[in-house]
């Protein structure tokens, strides 16, 4: 059986045959002890990038959540228009934090090698994190009152739901490669919360030479929505490049059949 996930073996480390089966591309049986084939990183090769991503995710989550822990409306970093708006925002932040923190664990080969653990974390990531966060987040985006936020952040919320659904559909069909790739795209959207907080200061510094003596900090509030929209575009572009490189190296077509 080519479906290692369903066969009870680990989909975590990629080994052996990488040729397409039918219209889908399945990974062969994988165990943590076998070496990865050319094109795919070995379990050890993934460890450091994933550890760094995890540390950044946990640190950023703490920083992002702190102003909302006391449920003090006045401490909110963004203005809210009603109690409902604030409640939805807090619900978005709490659930999104679950996704941000759990996501990196799923890319750790040793965690994926333990199928039951991978499955439990995956369900929490999606059912406690991504899905509720997107559902309460869409009204938060709309209530922001800014067109750029309304359109530019509703799109990634929908992308969050669609990529989650495609990832689940792929693994249910036994397509481990497609599952991994859709989850990479999904976490790229989750990670927008961090990339946005990096892009805004960068944009601020870049615009200083053009600010004509004006206080550059005054433009921060208008740069935040721009940074948020750019963030998911940047993240998805990086992940798409990684996916294609990985596929080409492994001798798979650069584009997967959806
Ligand atoms: C698809 C992913 C996400 C989208 C589309 C999204 C979208 C949004 C939107 C629309 C707002 C309100 C912005 C405004 O009214 O100006 C917001 C606020 C916020 N989001 Fe997210 N978000 C996502 C993921 C996350 C994640 C993973 C976290 C991690 C904790 C997070 C934490 C926050 C925080 C803390 C705020 C309040 C603003 C602040 O204090 O900086 N979001 N988000």
Automatic annotation (TrEMBL):
Query: Which parts of the chain are coiled coil?
Result: none
- Keyword Hydrolase present in the record's keywords: the answer is no
What Pfam families does the database record attribute to this sequence? DUF2306 (PF10067)
Disordered: annotated span: 1-38
Give the transmembrane ranges.
50-71, 83-103, 124-142, 148-168, 189-210, 222-243
InterPro entries in the cross-refs = DUF2306_membrane
Hydrolase listed as a keyword: no
What's in the keyword line of the UniProt record? Answer: Membrane, Transmembrane, Transmembrane helix
Instruction: Look up the domain of life of the source.
Output: Bacteria
What protein name is recorded for this chain?
A: Putative membrane protein DUF2306
Source organism of this protein record: Pseudonocardia endophytica
């Amino acid at each position: 059986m080519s479906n290692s996930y369903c066969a009870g073996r680990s989909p975590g480390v990629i080994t052996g045959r990488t040729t397409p089966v039918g219209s889908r591309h399945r990974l062969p049986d994988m165990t943590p002890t076998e070496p990865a084939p050319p094109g795919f990183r070995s379990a050890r090769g993934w460890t450091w990038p994933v550890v760094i991503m995890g540390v950044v995710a946990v640190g950023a989550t703490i920083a992002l959540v702190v102003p909302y822990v006391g449920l003090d409306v006045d401490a909110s970093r963004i203005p809210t228009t009603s109690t409902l708006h604030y409640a939805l925002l807090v619900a978005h932040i709490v659930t999104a934090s679950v996704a941000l923190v759990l996501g990196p664990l799923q890319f750790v080969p040793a965690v994926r090698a333990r199928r039951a653990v991978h499955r439990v974390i995956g369900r929490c990531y999606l059912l406690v994190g991504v899905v509720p966060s997107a559902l309460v987040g869409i009204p938060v985006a709309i209530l922001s009152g800014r067109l750029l936020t309304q359109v530019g952040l509703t799109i990634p919320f929908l992308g969050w739901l669609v990529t989650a659904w495609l990832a689940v559909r792929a693994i249910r069909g036994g397509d481990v490669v497609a599952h991994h790739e859709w989850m990479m795209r999904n976490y790229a959207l989750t990670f927008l919360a961090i990339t946005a907080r990096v892009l805004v200061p960068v944009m601020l510094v870049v615009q200083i030479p053009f600010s004509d003596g004006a206080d550059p900090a005054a433009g921060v509030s208008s740069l935040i929505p721009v940074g948020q929209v750019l963030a998911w575009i940047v993240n998805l572009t990086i992940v798409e490049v990684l996916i294609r490189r990985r596929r080409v190296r492994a001798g798979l077509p650069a584009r997967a059949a959806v």
